[in-house]
Known about the structure:
The protein has helices at about 35-40, 85-90, 125-135, 165-170, 200, 220-230, 265, 270-275, and strands spanning about 10-20, 25-35, 50-55, 60-65, 75-80, 95-105, 115-120, 150-155, 175-180, 190, 210-215, 240, 255-260, 260, 270. The protein is α/β, with parallel strands linked by helices and about 280 residues long.
Amino acid sequence: xxxxxxxxxxxxxxxxxxxxxxxxxxxxxxxxxxxxxxxxxxxxxxxxxxxxxxxxxxxxxxxxxxxxxxxxxxxxxxxxxxxxxxxxxxxxxxxxxxxxxxxxxxxxxxxxxxxxxxxxxxxxxxxxxxxxxxxxxxxxxxxxxxxxxxxxxxxxxxxxxxxxxxxxxxxxxxxxxxxxxxxxxxxxxxxxxxxxxxxxxxxxxxxxxxxxxxxxxxxxxxxxxxxxxxxxxxxxxxxxxxxxxxxxxxxxxxxxxxxxxxxxxxxxxxxxxxxxxxxxxx
Length: 282
Ligand SMILES: Cc1cc2nc3c(=O)[nH]c(=O)nc-3n(C[C@H](O)[C@H](O)[C@H](O)COP(=O)(O)OP(=O)(O)OC[C@H]3O[C@@H](n4cnc5c(N)ncnc54)[C@H](O)[C@@H]3O)c2cc1C
Ligand code: FES
């Protein structure tokens, strides 16, 4: 892995996808590092994040939305909420940004080998999960993991993300993909309802040796983790990722701490077993 560098590396935007623009304004940006040597050496783990600099505006953390198996570029999906994210949304293909990282612990890709995996993602929370989903479904990795199930939750059909991945996800062996929206709607023939209410009937959650990954709005994470706990799933097998305010990204400034944990350094990925021990500040 490239030594952590506090200086942003210059990267060019090579593609922009407008994912949704109704309720949520989300774009997926594809970046390519300008320095060939840096790009060749660069590596990361799904679940890690980068600090993205929009020159003259500011810096903000974003989790990788692409898999490290894609060697030539990296992707981040960005919801427009404020200063930096709005400035990012105004950029065009060919514009340059700064990137420093990768930071954080990332998902435990090695220790979940030979396990069943269930992903429950909601809205922009699907972004960090997509990095791991695309990693485990990649041809070179698929045989290392057992059954894979996805439950992707969106507010409405207009808010679905990564539609261009669905065919691949659905056609991969031993992989089951479900989609749900909050309310019934004309033309929608898939699931309806909040994801925590669909776990029992839509997922084979009783398969032995299953690891659960969930990410989404805090309220969704709470309901999903409560439901999984009530079904008897061990808190150590429920894994999520936190989004605290951050500044340095490397455990120095104290901006992101919860109790004795620095989310930027000890996280952002935590098991429910770790979360229940933390003060209720996330
Ligand atoms: C590890 C990590 C990974 C992240 N991954 C993604 C991602 O993949 N896609 C994405 O769109 N966003 C992601 N975020 C959140 C993203 O960093 C914030 O949305 C961004 O910093 C907002 O910057 P801004 O200048 O546009 O907003 P500001 O102008 O600073 O604030 C606008 C609004 O956003 C809220 N806000 C700011 N920062 C956060 C935050 N960290 N969490 C929740 N609300 C915040 C503020 O309270 C305010 O209401 C991630 C955050 C972390 C810590
Ligand atoms: S962002 Fe500075 S300590 Fe975590």
